[in-house]
Design brief:
By secondary structure, the chain is an alpha+beta fold. It has eight helices and ten strands. Helix 1 runs antiparallel to helix 8.
């Protein structure tokens, strides 16, 4: 009879262990009660009147702000700069991917046109107002994604997206043209409080208790045997 009770309690202990492990394996519980991440869209208004000094647009992928090549861009503004492509540094070659250049020392924007053809590097530059840069880079608010539009339009210029929290964040910012001006919107991943933290902690406690009981139940039964 005692042996039968021991086998029965051993089966109960194994069942408790399995149930507790299954509880911990739940996707909702398994990622822990710690903070999750959320995508945050942050907008920064751009003032064309002070932008040449502020240089906010220099963070846009369409603007090059490499101070090492400032002198060359200035020379190109007075006439086409041309050199054998093999003698041109990588810093200058990067201008082929840019529409504008920001001279932070002279607080001046330039429209640039850099090309490499027939073994030659050619650079043309023209000083332009910051407003022209904004107009050339901005995307109408009606054409951007919903969270970008929210960050551009809202009073605090902030929009939080909880969906796809682990998805990669697009590193490129967006310059948005709104009815009232221009807003530079960037994206980042920031920690967010887990809304299921209390429930997860309760389930962890329940699963832990079940595992302890599952291990101790057959042991206690064996110890009590005469």
């Amino acid at each position: 009879m005692a042996e039968s009770t021991h086998r029965r309690n051993r089966r109960r202990g194994v069942l408790l262990l399995l149930c507790s492990l299954c509880l911990l394996a739940q996707p909702v519980v398994g990622n822990g009660p710690g903070p999750d991440s959320q995508t945050v869209y942050t907008g920064q208004p751009v003032d064309p009147e002070t932008e040449a000094m502020d240089g906010v647009l220099a963070l846009h992928p369409g603007v090059n702000g490499d101070f090492i090549i400032t002198g060359t861009v200035r020379r190109a503004a007075n006439g086409t700069f041309e050199r054998p492509a093999e003698n041109v540094s990588g810093n200058l070659r990067a201008l082929t991917d840019a529409e504008f250049y920001w001279d932070n020392r002279g607080q001046q924007y330039y429209a640039v046109n850099a090309t490499v053809s027939d073994g030659a590097f050619r650079l043309r530059a023209e000083a332009v107002p910051a407003r022209q840069v904004a107009e050339g880079l901005a995307v109408p608010v009606a054409e951007v994604s919903e969270p970008v539009a929210r960050a551009a339009r809202s009073s605090n210029h902030r929009a939080v997206v909880d969906r796809d929290r682990t998805a990669p964040v697009d590193p490129d910012p967006t310059l948005v043209a709104t009815g009232g001006g221009y807003v530079f919107v960037t994206r980042s991943l920031e920690p967010a409080r887990d809304p299921y933290r209390a429930a997860k902690l309760g389930l962890y406690a329940l699963a832990g208790s079940g595992m302890v009981a599952g291990v101790l139940l057959p042991i206690l039964t064996r110890l009590r045997r005469p």
